[in-house]
Structure to design on (450 residues):
DNA sequence: CGTTTAATCTAACGAATTTTAGATTATATG
DNA sequence: CATATAATCTAAAATTCGTTAGATTAAACG
């Protein structure tokens, strides 16, 4: 019968996406690409690996149609092939987090519970940011901010943070975010800010998580306010 | 430095879920389990395979904590370890469908566009079903209906449909659904109903898709109305 | 208590993936 | 045009995974 054959074909196609998501390295690359487009060079240094290997994994992601490339001079610029890729990654991580104890334990080791902003909904935070009651700080590299960022967020990359403290309000609470739950940049930012007397906390969510929860993000507005 | 090691560990855990989703057979088993708990025997016959192989794949799914088992007499009863598993499956399929042409083409071959209900939102359908303006028909096996079904749906398994036609209204439009976009039961039901003069159409969505869109489902109410 | 049924476990083979290294392509630059 | 750079392609080694078959466990039944 033809029915079984067709069904096998359908599940095989879905499994192509699953296969792409079955390697830790590819997941890390996808997470980076969910922040915005990047060259192979950037991806290699930010994921801490070997160019050849990164290139091979990017090939696999390309074959699963999760990423796309274009040439720019002698650089190849990769990008996620849609916002749904980041959202898929976020739901995959949520499922992993709720079912795998090992992951929860490792996450607890990674982030300091002290630095975490707790007990406040996305909507409330958004409203407070809109009114200017809190300052939402995007501590990722500026190119990622330009690609997409949380509403009302100001860009201040982690490595410039120390030189730009004067531009920050000392009376308002600061909420820092970065690439998502597995990224440490916002945690480091909070550490630095608190040491200098600011009231600061971090949230887990990045742009993909924000989108996966059905909220909207901005892009390419003025990074300094 | 310890940071890289921890990050590798985190992504490795997420990749465990990805690995579980990387095999067509496992995806099919998960989809069946998303409809409700089933024995290995049932899973084997419904997925059309070999018991030993199905058992091996179930082991992999268990190790990824996506399914759980309990013994019942001499049967092992498997179940998805949460509603989020079905929702993950639904988003995975959505991503596959929007990025892989091959999948869209195969789907077109599978389902007759004629039978498909088009241009109506989930909310509208729900409202019409609530008011009784349409009859929503769950054509899956009754055990799956009991486990969870769309609001206001009536159970009428495909293989009983022919004997129960008297119980159906000939004036109201009938909307049939089954396990999801890859399942043909609702399509066959629509074929049969139309041949007997009923106004019938199918929708793609099953319980998991319904949930993944943020809607609610019912369970264990009276199947006959 | 031996037999049947349902399912798992173990071992083994082949297929597919990951990783590494060397050769190659495409573009920009002096 | 030779050279440097960015990245890919190809091939081989190491590893993992899917599949199959035979042996085994665990519960139910006569």
């Amino acid at each position: 019968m033809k029915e079984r054959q067709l069904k096998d074909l359908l599940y095989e196609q879905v499994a192509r996406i699953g296969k792409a998501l079955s390697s830790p390295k590819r997941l890390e690359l996808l997470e980076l690409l969910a922040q915005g487009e990047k060259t192979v060079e950037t991806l290699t240094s930010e994921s801490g690996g070997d160019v050849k290997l990164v290139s091979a994994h990017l090939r696999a992601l390309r074959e699963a149609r999760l990423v796309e490339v274009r040439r720019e001079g002698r650089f190849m610029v990769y990008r996620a092939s849609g916002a749904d890729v980041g959202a898929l990654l976020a739901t995959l991580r949520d499922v992993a987090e709720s079912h795998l104890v090992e992951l929860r334990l490792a996450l607890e080791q990674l982030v300091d519970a002290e630095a975490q902003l707790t007990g406040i909904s996305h909507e409330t935070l958004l409203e407070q940011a809109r009114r200017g009651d809190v300052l939402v700080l995007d501590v990722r590299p500026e190119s990622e901010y330009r690609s997409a960022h949380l509403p009302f967020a100001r860009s201040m990359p982690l490595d410039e943070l120390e030189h730009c403290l004067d531009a920050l309000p000392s009376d308002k609470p600061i909420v820092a975010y970065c690439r998502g739950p597995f990224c440490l940049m916002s945690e480091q930012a909070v550490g630095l800010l608190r040491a200098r007397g600011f009231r600061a906390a971090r949230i887990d969510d990045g742009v993909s998580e924000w989108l996966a929860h059905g909220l909207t993000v901005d892009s390419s507005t003025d990074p300094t306010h």
In short: Chain A has a mean pLDDT of 94. Residues 91 and 210 of chain A are 11 Å apart (CA to CA). The beta strands of chain A are 38-39, 67-72, 75-80, 135-138, 154-155, 174-177, 200-202. DSSP finds eleven helices and seven strands in chain A.
